[in-house]
Amino acid sequence: MTSLRGMDLNLLLVFEALYDTRSVSRAGERLGLSQSATSHALGRLREACRDELFLRAPTGMTPTPVANRIFPEIHTALDSLRHSIEEARGFDAISSTRRFEIAIPHPLGPEYALRIRDAAAAAAPGVRLRFDTRTLADDAPLLMREGQIDLAIDWIAAEDDRFVNRRLFDDSLVIAARKGHPRAKARMGWSELAQEEFVRCHRRAFERRPKALSGKLWDLMSESRLTVSEYLEVPFVVSRTDYLGVLPKSMACIAARDFRMIVVEVPGPSIRIPIWLVWHEGRRRDAGHAWLRGLVHRVMQTAAVEAGLLAEASSPK
């Protein structure tokens, strides 16, 4: 193992800035260093790593394979160190510059991400949030354990007992039709619905599939001649055709408002889908993470109240 005894660890900050900016001048500006001091630091890095690390190119500096290989570990280590020092001082939202990663695979992920972003910017202008709205991959629990994902807003609760699941609200499923559809009305029976064409989303893998989306409702859509990738595409199709589409109620409220759609209740008992806030228990005592959890909880419950899914927002526990 290579010893760090003789290495100036400030060089790791220079390496991170160079990798992020791909420019000696911009890296220097980020760190408050002159261009010559940054160039000198790059020379020392090259000597320590016995590699060029960054090569000049028409579009900026291109990292070498060695730089690409070592960056993730250096970046993670520096982020962990920054986090530890900040937490030792206590979390202050106004002055904090922490970065958080939030996964929102709920169909309204983009809408919720913008709400959370705006609320965070108002309360903590220096905090940086990054969002990912794609369906969570199988390695999501590992990414949360390692701190690469801080929170997930999902309709699938974590089964591992080392994770905390906080129920935010219950969503439900409804059917949407365009305004002026010749047969659609607020109440339709199964026999009436069976006469209609549906647009549907690709069915998720079994472990990512809401249990509520099964039985007669899925059977109605199984022969659909139009399949799309995401729920956000359904209102686009439905608003322009006589297709019907199944949507979460949280999304159908927006479809009714923005696309003037008819919302059709699914026959039978209401279909309920719990929406969870999920995080690893190792973050329980993290003051910054607790601030983030509280902010997300408030934003999500306000959105649920506006969508008619909650009578009133509750305080986070």
Automatic annotation (TrEMBL):
CDD domains: PBP2_Nitroaromatics_like (cd08417)
Keyword DNA-binding set for record: yes
Organism domain of life: Bacteria
HTH lysR-type domain residues: 7-64
Pfam families named among the record's database cross-references: HTH_1, LysR_substrate
Keywords linked to the UniProt accession: DNA-binding, Transcription, Transcription regulation
PANTHER family noted in UniProt: HTH-TYPE TRANSCRIPTIONAL REGULATOR LEUO, HTH-TYPE TRANSCRIPTIONAL REGULATOR LEUO-RELATED
Family per similarity comment: Belongs to the LysR transcriptional regulatory family.
Full protein name: LysR family transcriptional regulator
Organism: Roseomonas alba
Taxonomic path: Bacteria, Pseudomonadati, Pseudomonadota, Alphaproteobacteria, Acetobacterales
